[in-house]
């Protein structure tokens, strides 16, 4: 199994800007096709300070050119599928104020659907709120999905939760002090999928928040629960390295291979956060270009010419 989809870093606040224009993005979309990717996920469209399209709803200081129109047009031409991200305030849901998060997020769904719903590549919706066991994610996702259905924009729904383990919580410098083990993760996931039953089509779990030796145990219980609740189980194979003292370099090749091979027996699809930065010959990171070489050699059977000849 190879990586057949990628997030698009339309607004990802914890990785550096590559400052690409239409020419660079077109080359990357061609690379998606060459690497046999068919699925792209816009991680989010608006935050509390940044919009990636000229929104009339958002009152934010930083507004990009219309990246969504560019992405969808490039995807239309190449027959790729895009899951459209939503609005993430970065404020309310961290305070567990899910009501305010939903209230602010609903107008963006209307606006995005009105502006971009005509594109054939607009294949589904991505619930941008990743969350964890502390933040009542179903209380955010449910009304957003209900609104999507109400306005006639019903399409497949994708989420990308995390394994809320040591690399996410305080043991390894994350955001808290209570990491979950696989059994505790299973208990929470059973509740979450039960609350969302019938509303979620795909769940691509982030694989970088648990230690490598624990990954299989997390994946096994997740596969069992996704099957029970009829949710298509994907892997979000992170191609950046969480083990470094700074955020975030491209991951070491042996780590990427381990994660892919461990999860392949259990998932129906692998996507990544995210190819343009960490698995691309066009990346700002030289090591990402080399990682792309190793990946394409091993999983796609490419013959990569030596760069130094």
Topology overview:
Blueprint lengths: L2 E6 L13 H13 L4 E4 L7 E2 L10 E2 L3 H12 L2 E4 L13 H19 L5 E5 L10 H14 L6 E3 L22 H14 L6 E5 L8 H14 L3 E5 L16 H11 L5 E4 L2 H4 L7 H14 L10
Parallel strand pairs: 1-2, 1-10, 2-5, 3-4, 5-6, 6-7, 7-8, 8-9, 9-10
Helix pairs in contact: 1-2, 3-4, 5-6
Query: Can you name the CATH architecture?
Result: Alpha-Beta Barrel
Name the structural class.
Answer: alpha/beta
The overall number of domains is 1
Content of β-strand:
5-15%
Low-pLDDT runs: none
What integer value in Å does the Rg equal?
A: 19 Å
Question: Helix and strand succession?
Answer: EHEEEHEHEHEHEHEHEHH
Q: Write out the CATH superfamily name.
A: Glycosidases
Shape: globular
Main beta sheet: strand number and arrangement? 8 strands, parallel, barrel
CATH class label: Alpha Beta
The proportion of residues forming helix, as a percent range, comes to 25-40%
Summed over residues and divided by their number, the pLDDT gives a mean of 94
Number of helices: 9
Overall number of strands: 10
Molecular structure report:
The protein is of the alpha/beta class and 309 residues long. The chain has one domain (3-299): Alpha-Beta Barrel (TIM Barrel), CATH 3.20.20. It has nine helices and ten strands. It has helices spanning 22-34, 67-78, 98-116, 137-150, 182-195, 215-228, 253-263, 275-278, 286-299; strands at 3-8, 39-42, 50-51, 62-63, 81-84, 122-126, 157-159, 202-206, 232-236, 269-272. The strands form two sheets. It has an eight-stranded parallel β-barrel with strand order 1-2-5-6-7-8-9-10. Helix 1 links the parallel strand 1 and strand 2 (39-42). The model has no long low-confidence stretch (mean pLDDT 94).
């Amino acid at each position: 199994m190879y990586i057949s989809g990628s997030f698009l870093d339309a607004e990802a606040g914890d990785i550096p800007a590559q400052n690409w224009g239409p020419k660079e993005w077109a080359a990357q979309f061609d690379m998606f096709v060459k690497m046999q990717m068919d699925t792209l996920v816009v991680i989010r469209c608006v935050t509390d300070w940044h919009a990636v399209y000229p929104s009339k709803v958002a009152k934010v200081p930083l507004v990009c050119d219309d990246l969504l129109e560019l992405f969808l047009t490039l995807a239309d031409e190449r027959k790729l599928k895009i899951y459209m991200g939503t609005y993430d305030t970065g404020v309310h849901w961290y305070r567990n104020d899910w009501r305010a998060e939903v209230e602010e997020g609903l107008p963006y769904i209307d606006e995005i659907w009105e502006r971009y719903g005509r594109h054939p590549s607009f294949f589904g919706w991505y619930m941008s709120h990743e969350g964890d066991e502390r933040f009542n994610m179903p209380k955010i996702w449910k009304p957003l999905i209900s609104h999507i259905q109400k306005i006639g924009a019903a399409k497949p729904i994708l989420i990308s939760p995390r394994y809320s383990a040591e690399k996410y919580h305080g043991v390894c410098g994350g955001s808290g002090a209570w990491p979950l083990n696989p059994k505790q993760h299973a208990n929470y996931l059973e509740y979450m999928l039960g609350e969302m039953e019938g509303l979620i089509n795909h769940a691509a779990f982030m694989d970088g928040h648990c230690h490598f030796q624990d990954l299989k145990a997390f994946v096994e219980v997740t596969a069992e629960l996704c099957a029970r609740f009829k949710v298509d189980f994907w892997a979000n194979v992170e191609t950046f390295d969480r083990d470094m003292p700074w955020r975030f370099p491209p991951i070491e090749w042996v780590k990427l291979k381990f994660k892919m091979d461990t999860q392949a027996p259990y998932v129906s699809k692998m996507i990544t956060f995210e190819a343009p930065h960490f698995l691309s010959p066009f990346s700002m990171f030289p090591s990402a270009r080399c990682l792309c070489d190793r990946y394409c050699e091993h999983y796609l059977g490419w013959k990569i010419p030596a760069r130094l000849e």
